[in-house]
Structures are given as C-alpha cells and as structure tokens.
Amino acid sequence: MKTEIKVEPLPPHIDGELIEQRAKAETVAQPFPLDLLPRVVQKYVKEGAEACGADPSVIALPTLVTLAACIGTTRKIAAKSTWTAPAILWGAVVGNSGTLKSCGYDLSRDLLSKDEERYQSEHEEAMKRHRLEHAKYKRAQTKWSRGKTDSEPPSEPARPSAHRFIVDDQTLESLVPVMQENPRGLFQLTDELRGFFDGMGAYSSGGRSGKDESRWLSVFDARPFSVDRKQNRERISVPMTGVSVSGTIQPSILANTFSPNRIASGMLARLLLVMPEPRAKKWTDKEMSLQTRNAMRRVVVQLKELEHQIVDGAPQPIVLKMSRLAKKRFAEFVTSHGAETIQHDEALAAAWAKFEGYAMRFALVDHLVRAACGEKHCRSDGPVRRKSIENGIELSRWFASETERIYATLNFAKLDDQREGPENRNATRLAEWIKSNGGSATIRDINRGPRRYRGSNKEALIREDCNTLVRDNLAEWENSRSVSEIVLLPTECDGDGTQDLPEKTKQVSPKSPEGSKSSSAQETHQPRRKKKRRKPLEASSVNQSEETADSAVEKADGKRRHTQKKSSKKRPPRRRRPPTE
Known about the structure:
The chain is of the alpha/beta class. The chain contains 23 helices and 15 strands. The strands form five sheets. The chain has a five-stranded parallel sheet with strand order 4-5-8-3-9. It has a three-stranded mixed sheet with strand order 2-1-12, with helices on one face. Strands 13-15-14 form a three-stranded antiparallel sheet. Strand 6 and strand 7 (235-238) form a beta hairpin. Pfam families: DUF3987 (PF13148). Residues 138-162, 492-581 are annotated as: Disordered. This is DUF3987 domain-containing protein. It comes from Rhodopirellula europaea SH398.
C-alpha cells in the first residue's frame, strides 16, 4: 500500500490576520516572541528585562548576537549545496538617550567579561616569556656575528598572537591582522554604533561607496578577502572573516547615517533593528537570579568550545544540513516570503530579501544552543531539525515587521522618491550652511566650514555636493578671474525670493539666460561676471567729488610734509678714530 504524505497548508502570509498585524506594525511595536527562544535564553531575557525595567527586545537582540558571536565561523547551515549561511548577526537597538537601550549591551559585556580577563592575562604571560626568549636570541645573535663559524644563525622567536574576541570601534584595516590571528571570529560590541559606521571608509568620506563597505559586506557572509598594506606593501589574506556586530544608536543618527545611496548598497538591510516604545524609568527590586546567570554562562562556554574541521591542513566550518521536514518547511517559507518581497518598495524590499538568510541564521543559533543545553536529537554536528527552522522563520517574520515599522517611523521611503531632490542629505545640509552664511560661499569658505569638508584634498568632494545643488536648481556657480562662488537661488519658501537671501543672490534671476542653461554647460564653461558701468555724475555731485578730492590731496600733502620733517632731523655724525702713526 502506498502511504500518503500529508502536506500541511502554507502559513497565512497574505491573509487577514497578517494584514491586520502589518497595519498595527506601522504605529505600534509588537511584543517580542519570547516563546521562540530556547528555555535558558528565554529565562535570561525575561529576568534581564524585568531587572532593568526595559522592553524584552532590548535584551533579546544583543543576547542573540552574543550567542552567534560565540559560535563564530565554526558552523554553517545549508539549505542546499549552493546556499549556506554562517552564524553571524548584526543588530542595533534604536532609542533616544535615557530610554534604557544599553541594558542588553551591559548584560553582554558582563556575560563575556571573565573570558576577556583570562585572554588578557594569558597574553601578558606569553609576552613576558617572549621578551625573555628574545633577549636570549639577541645575545646568541651577537655571539654568532662575532664568531667565524659556518653554523646557522639563531632563529628569532615568533611573537605570540593575542587571543581576541571582543573588539570595539575599530576600522576594518586594523581588524584584518586580528581576524587573521583569530579565525574563529570576532565580536564588535560597542555601546554607540555611530563610531562603527564612521570608521568605514565609505561613510567617513561622505556616503560614497568604497572598498571598506564592500569588504564589510563580505565579512557579513564570512567570505575571504585580501588587503594590501600601504606602508610595507605586505599582502594579508584572511581565509575566513566573521564579525558579529551589536550596539545601540539614536533614531536621528540612524536616519542621518543612511542616505539613499547607503540604503541601496545593502548595509542597512543587513542590520536587525528593534525600537521599542519609550518607557518611563521606574525603580524595581527585581534582579536576575544567580542560577539563570550561571546557566547562560554555561551555554556560552559550550558554544565557545566548538571547533572547526581541518581540511588539507586548514580550518574549515562544519556545514549542518537541514532535516527532510525542516527543508520542506523552509522551502515553503522561501516561496511565500518571495511573494511578499516584490510587493514592497525598493528600500524595504532590500531588507526583506535578507530575512530569508536570517531565518537560516536564527535556526542555526537555536539548534546549537539547544545542543549545548543537552536537548535530545540536537547535536552540534547533526542536522538542523524542523523546530529550529520554525523558530528561525517566526523570528525573521517578527524582525521583518519591526523593520517595516522603523522604516516608516524614520521615513526611509522609496529610494526613487528620495532621489527626486538632492542626491543625498549632505547637499541639503550644505545648502542650509551656505544660507546661514549669507547665501554664497567659495570653495575655501566651505573647506573651513562644516566638518565634512575640512582638511586637505576635499575640493573634489565640495564640488560634487555643490554640483548636486546646481543640478537640482538650488544654486549656481559664479566665477570671477580669481575665485569661484556657489550662490543659492531664490526658492518658493523664501516668499518673494529675496527676503532671506543676500544682495548677491537677489540679483540672480532664475529666468535669466544663464539660469536656463543646463547643469553640464554650467560646470564646463562659466560666463564671466560683467563689470558694472558707472553712471555719469551730475554737476553738484562733480563739485562734491572735486571738493573731496582736494581735501584728500591736502591730507596727503600734510602727511608728506610731516614725514619729511621727521626725515629732515639729521643724526649726529659718528666720531672717527684718529689715525695711528
């Protein structure tokens, strides 16, 4: 007899229940689904939130990222042979100052502090031994150089590598040698993520795409890359890159950090965001129990003991496959989630597409935490079960709903709509600064003004943002023989167009022939400013001018006579010595 396989219906992803949830998600934050977490993690998050008086999501996101960082690059999950995902998570708690957004950060620091102290003490002891061995090597090297033997020179002892796990506010260039020494992965744990984004080369230069940005995207997927150092031209290759990121950021800073170009690059789409409703701080006597803290500590220790497999003498991650039922459930989710993705605008669709991979990453963390807790049918090298996949899918759905709400709150609208004005917010800020400084400015003025344009080699950046204002009909170039000025044009918000602008700007008419030329013509060839013709003077004004001229001549003659009197005073002649016979 043939056995019939029952196919469970797809979850309601476009039914009335989800539509109602999405309608609420635009204004109201949904509670974090604690029941999706393993029991140990669920208790840790709940007690931590009650002890701090914060929303559970503020504790849950940093805790998930911490567990993923402890796994590092030792494991990957595979949906199929060409689709794998590492245990790397990037998360940001969004909130204003004083909203208890740093509670999860503090708990993660406390959870890992003992390991960091141990790593530091071990490295100090290793450096003491290295200094003693290096002193012996120096003496042996001196003795060998003075001798006349054909023996081999003494070998210099290698400097011990530092075992690192937590890094804070470091650029990618400085992280490369650290990643090379720690192939297991690192944890970028920082209270304020603004320094993390400012440290990227792409963002420190004003939001333009660059090498650092693309390399950070490679780090998110644990892909290898190489770096050529400028000082000694040494090439450093990192076969496995893995850095989990966790921190906090204020809503205004998040909105200003990610311009439309940065959203299109995919950097924002890789960030898991939570932004709970602000709560008034209240006193509470509740504290996290020592039993809960120790149980979570044991899970962290178990995850940190996971190791790579060695293939051809090099460490490689162990790839965990999905069970048959887990793979079937994930295939259903991919199909339904893909139908949702194409219904969103460009900005939200970029983030929506990443939640398929995040479902796999959440499932991998869930599976390995349960294996560390000793649950049945869960092994650190065994297949991922359906329950873990289900939890990963539901977690990704919650984060997708939270992302949609945050994007709507922070006005991350369609990228096409944002491109209708200036290319980025930097040009708008530049226009505001020029208006506050009289409505016009030279390149040198701008170079001494906003911090973004200070320093050497910033002329190209200044011209780029100024040309953006010219293309959007917000300003125009006025060139003279010695200097170029960017002058703001009157806008509708200025009333009659001349109230809030200086005289130089009032003389510019948007209907003039110069203003009607294309932006490319303005950039390549600028007409010289015409000199103003002086009006003929009337008789009375001529007499006045003659009188003023005569008085000026008299003053000049008086000054000349005064200087002559001073110079007429002769100095006494110097006494000469009598000639010697």
